[in-house]
Task: structure prediction
Amino acid sequence: MVHLIEEQQLLTCSVLSGNRNFEARIHPLVHSNFLCSPPLVVAYAIAGTMNIDLMNDSLGSDRDGNQVFLKDIWPSASEVQSVIRDTISPELFNSSYSKIFSGGPSWNSLNASESKLFAWDEASSYIKEPPFFNGMPDTPETLSNINNAAILAIFGDTITTDHISPAGAIPTESPAGQYLQKLGISPEDFNSYGSRRGNHEVMMRGTFANIRLRNHMVDKDGGFTRILQSHKTISIYDAAMLYKKNATPLVVFAGSDYGTGSSRDWAAKGTMLLGVKAVFAKSYERIHRSNLVGMGVLPLQFEDGIDASTLGINGSETITIEGISDDLIPGGKLTVLCKRRDGKMTRSFSALIRLDSAMEVEYYRHGGILHKVLRQALG
Result:
């Protein structure tokens, strides 16, 4: 089926009763996901298509050749209540809760260390010690301008947290898939990004790797970008690592409602680990904006009527953000300078600081909420 979808470029969809309907969330080749009640999922499964009027069209025929309609399979309220009465009882809950602390054989057979420190297993491909505190000084460094940053990506409107940090299947050819194969893990054992969220190496490679993501700096879908020094198109992860090797800070441009969707912490964690220092957007989803602040990434908002398109930004510029200091004012403004590769200034504009409170300024000053909390604990 996968080969058929790819060869014929089919637009496929899913019908589900869960609450995860991001594009490509169920499978990378599934473009759309429709949320329905469980009986409707069954009805569409019987019909085998969404191109049907369930209120009037037949779902199919029974073994005697009679047409079957939605009303024929839909349970009545009395049928539902009857099943509940026959299957749900207080004893079920009392029995389960009485054993809640005893655990099963698998749980009880685990060897737990008595140390208060977690024993990291270097061989594990699921849980690795993250580098969030590597090189962290005892006190926060003085805030300063972001100078000559490269543009990692330019996105449009409604970029979801699943676009930023997918939780579904890990494609074989993706940076995360290549990483796992180098560890000797075969594609059938990849599992998913969500299952490997304890491994920052996987999640960092998965950041901006959704196959439905469109970076306006390149002419193909997926987690790709164009590096500043050439017109070569490479993965966003590989580009970020090249910039990190040269100590080049990164910025991301986006449109409206950036970070909409579930409050996925790795959407902000992965952004920070790639080396992104600031994000420009026309507007933010509330929780993702606050998560960016919590990871030490500066969220900046375009003033009305301005965005990357109106500014003529195409990704070949370097970006300098001036006015960053320890006395940042929540909701204040910073000056942004855009320069071409030849050093000639192309445009300057003001951006709103989306640090919305004095406490968020404090988080940003510490490099994120994790650093602030750890310094408080050590202090």
